[in-house]
Each structure stands twice: as structure tokens, then as C-alpha cells.
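QA checklist item 7 of 12: single-chain prediction sanity check.
[x] sequence parsed
[x] length recorded as 297
[x] structure emitted
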Amino acid sequence: MTVLHTFLFADLAGFTALTEAHGDDRAADLAADFAARTRTLLAAHKSEEVKLIGDALMLRSDDAAAAVRLACRIVGDIGGQHGFPAVRVGAHTGPAVERDADWFGATVNLASRVSAAAAAGEVLISTTTKEAAGDGLANCAFRFIGARRFKNVREQIELYSVVDSGLAQRARAALAIDPVCHMSVDTAVTGGQRTYRGRGYFFCSEACAAAFDERPGHYLRGRPSRADLRVSDRSRDQAAAFLRRAHEQGRLELEDLEERLAQVMVAKTRRELSAALQDLPGRRRIRRRRDRHQRER
């Protein structure tokens, strides 16, 4: 009988920016604090620490539902508070091999890839983990974000974003993100506030606010670009229909169609959506319809 394990990779999103803004000592202290706080949650969630890798923790559990609940606690209770970096967690379930207190195998590798695909403040899991959890996640809501291809993985992997209904998870929505160090900031107790080009920004400290004053473009690079604006479900549906027509016209092979449809389903920005439509004639018409729809909303 094959034994299934659920592996979690949890890390601090924006750790490089944090290190640049606050220095190596402060970043190392926060990474150690993150690890220590996470360890206090393990026993209650039938999980164990495998190893600490820089600012990332590799965790394992024999109970997929308990592992997902742990992931939500890590993101919501540890990452979802003022003065702490946002946290992201990815999970996958399957067989693995233990050697010298470490774990190896395709399941471990894929769990790491899923974690890297998660956004700040997000718990991302595979379909395998969701199915293994069964009915043990009654307090969690799932959002299917589509199938994604990962390097050196033959099959596409279907992914779900998980949100716990607890107050701590919902509280994150009220927090701003410091554009300099990527810390979570409670706007009621902010260390500084600035307005730049009509938009307000909050900071964890006056030091970060002062750094922003000197080089706002450095910390906001890419943000004003239209290519980085979020796309709607309607835009994704239009792009998918466009790709299917291209397949019917003989411009795309079936395998290429399936791969591009997967890109469209998980696209969050105009840039990502356009990448799935590259080298196909007529894609500018899709862009014009998308822009018109967004102006009408």
C-alpha cells in the first residue's frame, strides 16, 4: 500500500526587498521569528518540520486536511499581522522517500514548485491535496485557478487557492503593503504615509518612507504599466474563445491549444494574458474589446 504524505513549503514573500530595506540582521531575525511561530502550530496540526531553508520552511504531514489548515494558519495568523512580511504556502500530496531525516521525490519537488507559484498571502494547493483532504476542510473556501505546467513535470497540475473563513485570514484585506520592504502595515498605526501621483502609500517606518521619497520610481517600477493591470473573467473567456477559433482554423495544434488555454485560465494581468495570444493574428481586436469592456464597467 502506497503511503501518501502532504508537503508544505512556506516562506516570506518579498524577502529580498525586506533584506535590502532593513539589512541582513533584521531580515534574519524575522526569518527566525517566522520559523519559531510556525513551529508552535505543528503539533496541533499533526505536522512536522523537515528543514529550514533560508526564509522557507519545509513541512510534512500524514493528514492532508490538517496540513491545509496549518497552511491557512501560517498565512492568516502569522503573515496576516502588522509589521510582519506577507507569507505564502504551497502544498502537494503523494508518495515520497525518507533518507537521513530528509524527504525526496517528485511529490516534494512539485510542492516546492506550487509554493513558488503562490502569491503573497496565498495558500495554493494541488487537486491531489484537495482530494486527499476529503471532508476535513469544511471551514475553507476553494477557488480553482486552472491547470498549470511546471518545468520538468509531464502533466498539467490543477491548482486551488484556499481561504480559511477565520477572522485572521480576512483581516489581511485591511492591511496595506509597504512598497519598500513589503511588510504588512495596519493603516491605523502606520509608521508613515505618502501620496505619489494621486495614490496613497503606507510604510512600516519613517525610514522606509524616507527611502521612498528619494527613489519612488525604484520601488514602484512596473506598477503604472497598463500591461500589469488585472484582467477580468470576461477577458479570459474572450481569450479562450479566440484560441479555440485559432485551433479550428489550423493555426494551433491541439497540444499547443491546451497549453495556451491553461495559461489563459491562470492569467492575472494583461501581460500574462497577451503572452498566451502571442504570434496569432487578430489578437489586437481582443485587446480593444477588453479595453472597451473595462471602460464601460
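[x] summary fact logged: Residues 228-296 form one domain.
[ ] second reviewer sign-off
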